[in-house]
User: Which sequence fits this backbone?
């Protein structure tokens, strides 16, 4: 009975929806990697990215969560859909998977997971002695245009160059036209 | 559980491991790109968790996350255009068939 009461308090609801968000992330990631149909992979990726955006809300940054949905779900997933349409047709039979290769990949990623998990368990995380509590988007904007203006400019330059490079590469390759 | 840094770090490690498995096991180039996106997201969760619990100023980690997002967008654009170019040239996007440079 006490557990039920806890469940319907504000804190219990927050924990419950946190678990829901984490579940969304994991299920989406598993679909994104495990499904054989490439289109299901993209939909799984979108689901996982929605979950990650939810995690960002729990980490006090609704602005980054919004950008995650806008850029990742709105732009990158759609771009991947276009690439799927422009490449191999989906009805072609796929070559069978080699179990030895899947086993190797599973072992390698499991090893990385175990190692990083152990490392995390051994470390004690020490917070900075003096922490600002200013989380507003206004401050973020001020920082982006004053102290971190160089990063801002570099991002725009990188995006411009990437756009030009993508157009040049996808149009008709280099030479021999 | 919600206000504990290790929860978020474990979520990030799990996501990273899934992405690594995808990169190693899948053979379609687009699937490999999707897995790389998952790994980048794991890195971003790490940045945001450290930003929330440890960093002296909470704007820095968010700016790092935005930077990762922009780089991921650039990487996806370039990668997808390369995939389209490869498909035009070789009529396949299987990683194991694109071996023209093999000696």
Assistant:
């Amino acid at each position: 009975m006490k557990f039920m009461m806890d469940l319907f308090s504000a804190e219990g609801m927050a924990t419950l929806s946190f678990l829901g968000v984490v579940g969304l992330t994991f299920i989406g990631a598993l679909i994104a990697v495990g499904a054989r149909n490439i289109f299901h992979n993209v939909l799984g990726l979108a689901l996982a990215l929605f979950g990650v955006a939810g995690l960002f809300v729990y980490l006090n940054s609704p602005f980054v969560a919004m950008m995650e949905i806008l850029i990742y779900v709105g732009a990158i997933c759609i771009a991947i859909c276009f690439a799927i349409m422009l490449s191999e047709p989906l009805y072609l039979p796929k070559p069978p998977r080699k179990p030895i290769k899947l086993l190797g990949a599973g072992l390698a990623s499991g090893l990385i997971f175990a190692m990083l998990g152990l490392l995390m368990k051994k470390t004690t995380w020490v917070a900075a002695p003096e922490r600002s509590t200013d989380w507003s988007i206004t401050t973020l904007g001020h920082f982006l245009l004053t102290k971190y203006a160089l990063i801002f400019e570099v991002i725009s330059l990188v995006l411009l160059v990437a756009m030009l490079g993508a157009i040049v590469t996808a149009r008709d390759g280099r030479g021999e036209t | 559980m919600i206000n504990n840094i290790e929860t978020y770090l474990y979520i990030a490690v799990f996501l990273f491991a899934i992405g690594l498995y995808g990169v190693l096991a899948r053979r379609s180039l687009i699937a490999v790109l999707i897995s790389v996106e998952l790994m980048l997201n794991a890195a971003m969760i790490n940045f945001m968790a450290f930003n929330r619990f440890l960093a002296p100023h909470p704007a820095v980690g968010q700016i790092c996350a935005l930077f990762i997002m922009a780089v991921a967008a650039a990487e996806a654009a370039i990668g997808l255009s390369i995939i389209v170019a490869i498909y035009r040239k070789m009529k396949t996007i299987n990683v194991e068939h694109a071996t023209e440079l093999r000696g």
Notes: Residues 58-90 of chain B form the longest helix (33 residues). Chain B has one domain: 5-90. The helical segments of chain B are 5-25, 29-53, 58-90. Chain B touches chain A through 72 residues (CB under 8 Å).
